[in-house]
Backbone:
């Protein structure tokens, strides 16, 4: 009998100009997707970071965490994160993501969207620590949220909306971060929690 959690390892390329983006709809995991979500929520040392917008300090509308190889740091949006050491579960997820993407990573940035009110503003993963053309592998567990991509320069291109279900891997590489920004909007329809893991390579 075919294992439910090893259904498909073929990435589907998305037809986006000035980008290299592909999606894998179900990645093999050591536990069921609901159990993966529970473990990640319970075992991750989440942080509530703050950002300054127009002179005012606000809580980020989500919780975050960074795990990475020793000696790595990551700065974004005026926030400096010092990573925690890898857990056994995160190492196993990393191994499986590396296996299906043919890439290697030394860090994972985690986001916890607690409900439909949590979100992520539009941005590009273009920090200097990531290098010129970073490879970003994004893995989802929990509620389906819509990942929105907007071209930075070609305003005539409409936003691209990609529903990311549990077990989905979204792979961005090449010139994607130069030409596109991405985010996750709040939504009116209530939903449960979602954990997103973005595997990346920090050069610092």
Residues:
């Amino acid at each position: 009998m075919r294992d439910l959690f090893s259904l498909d390892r073929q990435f589907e390329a998305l037809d986006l100009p000035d980008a290299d983006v592909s999606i894998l709809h179900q990645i093999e995991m050591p536990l069921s997707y609901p159990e993966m979500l529970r473990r990640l929520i319970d075992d991750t040392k989440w942080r509530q970071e703050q950002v300054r917008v127009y002179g005012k300090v606000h809580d980020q509308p989500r919780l975050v965490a960074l795990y990475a190889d020793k000696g790595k740091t990551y700065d974004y949006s005026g926030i400096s994160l010092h990573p925690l050491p890898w857990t056994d579960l995160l190492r196993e997820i990393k191994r499986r993501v590396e296996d299906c993407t043919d890439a290697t990573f030394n860090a994972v940035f985690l986001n916890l969207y607690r409900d439909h009110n949590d979100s992520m503003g539009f941005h590009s993963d273009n920090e200097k620590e990531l290098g010129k053309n970073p490879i970003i592998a994004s893995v989802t567990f929990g509620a389906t949220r819509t990942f929105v991509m907007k071209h930075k320069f070609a305003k005539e291109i409409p936003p691209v909306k990609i529903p990311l279900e549990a077990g989905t891997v979204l792979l961005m590489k090449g010139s994607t971060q130069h030409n596109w920004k991405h985010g996750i909007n709040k939504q009116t329809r209530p939903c449960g929690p979602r954990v997103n893991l973005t595997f990346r390579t920090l050069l610092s």
